[in-house]
Amino acid sequence: MREPHPRVVLGLHRSRYERRLLTSALELGITAIDTSFNYRDFGAHRRLTEIGGDLLPRFTLSTKVGFFQGTGRVEHSLDPGRLRLALEQSNRDLQRVPDLVFLHNPERSLREAPDARDTLAQACATLDDATAQGLCGSWGISSWDPSSLPDLVDPTMLKPSVLMVRVGLLVGIRTLDSADDLATRWGLQADSMWGMSPFGGDARDPVWDMLDPRIFLRHQGSSLSRPQAAFRAAYHLPQVGTLAVGSDNPAHLRELLDALDSAADEQVMLEYRDLLRDRASRQPA
Question: H or E element: which one contains 53?
Fold first, then answer.
């Protein structure tokens, strides 16, 4: 498989949603941002337009639908009507059409759905119809745990343009293999694959002091810091062409961008996945 040119999307999951973050991203050459209908207590879209409505036309913008405000709690739903209303609300709050809308963690509702395959197919059809009607530029699926999804996909199901999954050295082999399987079933190449959470949620986790990710890169990666190397390696676990990463620190973003010129050692990556698979096979069920 051809290795795609690595792209970076500014992820806004834990962002403070400050204007300087958007201006700094543009100065660094980052021209894509990713948010969600439910981020910032369901106020992320409105906050984006408040802090940078004039800047948003300079970005491609992706968001997600699937989580909703319930009575005293957050609910997940793949109900076509609720998804449609969320898309319409997103357009109003963003004051623009999102370039890409992800179906957000569909596995959450599919676990208890009486007919999971049909439920997923209807949700995909809803986003496909919304794209045709101009509510979004394209649609995709963002899955935190894709392990249950491959068996639900059949040739009649509409195909997303992008699949977003967890990536990096802290992702287990079950998730890695499921992501690859799902991409294969939908016929998605690496440049249609997005990654998220490359540091497992925290680039300052002590694990990065104990693990040296530079062993996963070719020689030119030896000069990188451990977080830089972990970020660069994440593009190959599994193989993705785009990686969404969040930071309120422009210096941290610049450091990560500086790692993109390094290349992964494909053989070491394969050996690492084999080790993960072997370890998983020896664990009790």
Answer: none
CATH number for the domain including 261? Answer: 3.20.20.100
Domain boundaries, position 53: 7-280
Counting as low any pLDDT under 70, the low residues of the chain are 1-5, 201-205, 220-221, 284-285
Domain presence at residue 2: no
Domain count, the chain: 1
54 by Cβ neighbours in 10 Å (0-12 / 13-18 / 19+) ranks as exposed
Alpha helices in 194-265 (DSSP H): 207-210, 226-233, 250-257
Question: Are the beta carbons of 63 and 36 closer than 8 angstroms?
Answer: yes
At residue 53's C-alpha, the angle toward residues 48 and 58, to 5°, is 100
Q: What does DSSP say about strands 139-143 and 100-104: parallel, antiparallel, or unpaired?
A: parallel
Class of residue 142 by CB neighbours under 10 A (exposed 0-12, middle 13-18, buried 19+):
buried
pLDDT in tens, 112-158: 899 999 999 999 999 999 999 999 999 999 999 999 999 999 989 99
Measured CA to CA, the distance from residue 43 to residue 38 in angstroms comes to 7
Residue 219 CA, distance from chain mean position: 28
**CA angle, 212 as apex, 202 and 4 as ends, to 5°?**
75
H-state helical runs in the chain: 19-27, 39-42, 44-52, 80-94, 107-110, 116-132, 173-186, 207-210, 226-233, 250-257, 266-282
Model-wide pTM > 0.90: yes
Tokens of 203: 């680039």
